């Protein structure tokens, strides 16, 4: 009791005038007012920009920021430092793109599935991509990141469509529970098929294990560029669904009462989600933690309004991914720890701390 | 109105009968597993082998070894881990009221996996050491998750699902970190060690032996009666924490007891055979479909059926298709369990299936 009163009081003090301007008490869960949330979002964008710069500068060979700027504005091919900076651009861009895509997709997925366990992988995307990549290695002898992307993307898309179709069968259409169960079931099945191949072929395992960890290193423009159109379309679709997700969060019946065409809107949102996380997985491999946890963490700032959760996730997720990638470059010199590993190792303690604070992690 | 109690009674009897059918199914499948397959034993021979083994009498060359050192311990461990996973999954799903909850999702399997892979890859361990590491890892991670979620619960609201939600979220966070550790170690290991670790990670009965069966048996002798004791409060907890408290259930104590029992069940089973995919997740829904209501004994029996059937396939049929590769049983439970769950989902006419 004492605890909650204190928070309420301090919160009132913090937000001050903005709350009064807004007039009657808004939804009691909203921890910050609109203006304050916008300020936080701006701060996150600034942090992201700083991290992007740091991602160009930091690594096995550190480059001063001034030289980074020179390399970007007046590139000199003969300068070794400039070449290093240029080599770091694709992975930085990929970190931004994949992180944003996963955060956005994760937030939307939790809204569609109304389940805190729902990450983008729940639609079968990671499993479909993984099985397709393993098949590509085993059957077609593929061995490069740019060779994997189309296998991964097609595998992810097919798996997601199958999950959606299965969940849509039956009287009541694709309900959240059926979506989640169908996704979990199909994922388990696909992973098992994948393991049949991996257990019988050591060569395949040897290549696949390096894709499996997920990361942004070793990808050049031939990996990054093909993904951009898919990501752009997916991001536009999902960013437009904030209001829809808000009404879906109230339950299908209420959403229907509010005039939503629940089946259609859910299908469109799912399409956006699959474009985003399918492409991200194709480009960077399975980076599981980002899409699951960033939206939860973001909720502590934004409250339950998806019109805020979505843009916050879009900015906060690449912050996590870039930070993880940068830390991964320096913790194990001269080697690197892939970003897919570091996101979980860096993100998990933060996430646990957020849960410990015990404020509403509900949906 | 007057019919209602009769109907209720009839439904109760029906599900009891169905549970008996499941139990009979486990016995039959166990017999099929031991007697038939790529090596067939007649029933008289089986009892002769068993008697000879127990009394130290004359052994039948070949047959004695295959039955006593391979088929029988495999079947015994398979049955027991099936029971344990089935029960653990049903307990988690009921307690957390989340159909996605199972030891795999809650992080316990990953605790076991991470500890086992560390033991295999870094310390070059095998056999009982790996099992011990897995057990310790599972229990440590479960304790960590519970500590994280319980700390908040003490000063949190009394809303029923809040504590459960925190437990789930903490599990998800820890699971992701451990999963990353496992994947990273897999890239750092020698490829042969990585292949060994992969077999363990899939859950396999290939290294079943009597020592392991004995340890598992004593664990279940303690845990299964404990489940029977806790089943009553569990049914009341399902009504929500507030209602349960109103009915005189000590919510926090009951929840803690439930978590400890469910976690230990999953942990001992995982230690014995690795995290066999999907059994814990699947047993509850199948049992509910078959008996018409959520039932712990039925879930346990379904778990045993799944593992026995899957390992029969893995040990006898899969090698014919795959040039002699004996697949880990967990590969089969996933590959065959998934379509089955999808079929359940599609044909279910109840929303909560």
Automatic annotation (TrEMBL), chain B:
It comes from the Bacteria. It is a multi-pass membrane protein. The keyword Cytoplasm does not apply. GO terms for cellular component: plasma membrane. The keyword Membrane applies. GO terms for biological process: siderophore-iron import into cell. It is found in: Cell membrane. It holds the Pfam family FecCD. Keywords: Cell membrane, Membrane, Transmembrane, Transmembrane helix, Transport. One of its GO terms (molecular function) is transmembrane transporter activity. InterPro entries: ABC_BtuC-like (IPR037294), ABC_transptr_permease_BtuC (IPR000522). The chain crosses the membrane at residues 20-41, 75-96, 108-129, 135-154, 166-185, 215-236, 256-282, 294-314, 326-346. Belongs to the binding-protein-dependent transport system permease family. FecCD subfamily. This is Transporter permease.
């Amino acid at each position: 009791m004492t605890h909650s009163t204190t928070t309420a009081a301090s919160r009132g003090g913090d937000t001050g005038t903005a709350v009064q301007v807004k007039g009657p008490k808004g939804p009691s869960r909203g921890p910050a007012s609109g203006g304050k949330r916008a300020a936080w979002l701006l701060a996150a964008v600034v942090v992201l920009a700083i991290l992007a710069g740091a991602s160009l500068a930091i690594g096995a060979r550190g480059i001063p920021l001034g030289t980074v700027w020179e390399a970007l504005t007046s590139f000199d091919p003969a300068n070794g430092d400039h070449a290093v900076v240029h080599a770091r651009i694709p992975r930085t861009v990929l970190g931004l793109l994949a992180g944003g895509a996963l955060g956005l997709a994760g937030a939307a997925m939790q809204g569609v599935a109304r389940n805190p366990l729902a990450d983008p992988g729940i639609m079968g995307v990671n499993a479909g991509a993984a099985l397709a990549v393993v098949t590509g290695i085993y059957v077609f002898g593929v061995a490069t990141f740019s060779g994997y992307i189309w296998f991964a993307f097609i595998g992810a898309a097919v798996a997601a469509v199958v999950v959606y179709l299965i969940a849509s069968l039956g009287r009541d259409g694709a309900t959240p529970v059926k979506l989640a169960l169908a996704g979990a079931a199909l994922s388990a099945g696909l992973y098992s098929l994948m393991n049949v191949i991996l257990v019988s072929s050591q060569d395949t395992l040897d290549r696949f294990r390096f894709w499996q960890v997920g990361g942004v290193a070793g990808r050049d423009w031939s990996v990054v560029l093909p993904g951009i159109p898919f990501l752009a379309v997916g991001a536009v679709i999902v960013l437009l669904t904030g209001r829809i997700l808000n009404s879906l969060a109230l339950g299908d019946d209420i959403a229907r009462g509010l005039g939503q065409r629940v089946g259609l809107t859910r299908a469109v949102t799912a399409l956006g989600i699959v474009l985003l996380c399918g492409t991200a997985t194709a480009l960077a491999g399975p980076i599981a933690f980002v899409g699951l946890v960033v939206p939860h963490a973001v909720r502590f700032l934004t409250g339950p309004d998806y019109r805020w959760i979505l843009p916050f996730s879009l900015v906060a997720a690449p912050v996590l991914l870039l930070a993880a990638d940068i830390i991964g470059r320096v913790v194990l010199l001269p080697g690197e720890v892939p970003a897919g590993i570091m996101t979980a190792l860096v993100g998990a303690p933060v996430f646990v701390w957020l849960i410990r604070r015990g404020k509403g992690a509900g949906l | 109105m007057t019919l209602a109690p009769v109907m209720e009674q009839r439904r109760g009897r029906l599900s009891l009968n169905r549970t008996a059918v499941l139990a009979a199914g486990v016995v039959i499948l166990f017999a099929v597993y031991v007697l038939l397959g790529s090596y067939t034993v007649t029933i008289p021979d089986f009892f002769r082998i068993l008697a000879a083994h127990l009394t130290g009498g004359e052994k039948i060359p070949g047959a004695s070894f295959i039955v006593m050192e391979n088929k029988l311990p495999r079947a015994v461990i398979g049955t027991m881990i099936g029971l344990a996973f089935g029960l653990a999954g049903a307990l988690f799903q009921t307690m957390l009221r989340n159909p996605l909850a199972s030891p795999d999702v809650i992080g316990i399997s990953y605790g076991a996996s991470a500890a086992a892979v560390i033991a295999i890859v870094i310390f070059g361990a095998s056999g009982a050491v790996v099992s011990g590491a897995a057990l310790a890892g599972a229990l440590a991670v479960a304790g960590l998750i519970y500590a994280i979620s319980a700390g908040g619960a003490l000063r949190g609201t009394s809303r029923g699902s809040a504590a459960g939600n925190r437990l789930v979220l903490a599990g998800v966070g820890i699971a992701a970190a451990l999963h990353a550790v496992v994947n990273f170690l897999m890239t750092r290991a020698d490829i042969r060690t990585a292949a060994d670790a992969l077999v363990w990670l899939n859950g396999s009965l290939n290294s079943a032996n009597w020592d392991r069966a004995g340890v598992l048996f004593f664990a279940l002798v303690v845990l299964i009666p404990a489940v029977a004791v806790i089943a009553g409060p569990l049914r009341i907890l399902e009504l929500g924490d507030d209602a349960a408290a109103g009915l005189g259930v000590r919510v926090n104590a009951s929840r803690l007891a439930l978590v400890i029992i469910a976690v230990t069940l999953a942990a001992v089973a995982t230690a014995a055979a690795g995290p066999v995919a999907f059994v814990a997740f699947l047993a509850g829904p199948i049992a509910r479909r078959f008996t018409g209501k959520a039932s712990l004994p039925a879930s346990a029996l379904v778990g045993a059926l799944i593992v026995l059937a899957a390992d029969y396939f893995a040990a006898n049929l899969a090698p014919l298709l795959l040039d002699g590769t004996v697949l880990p049983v967990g590969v089969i439970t996933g590959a065959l369990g998934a379509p089955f769950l999808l079929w359940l989902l599609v044909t279910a006419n109840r929303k909560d299936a």
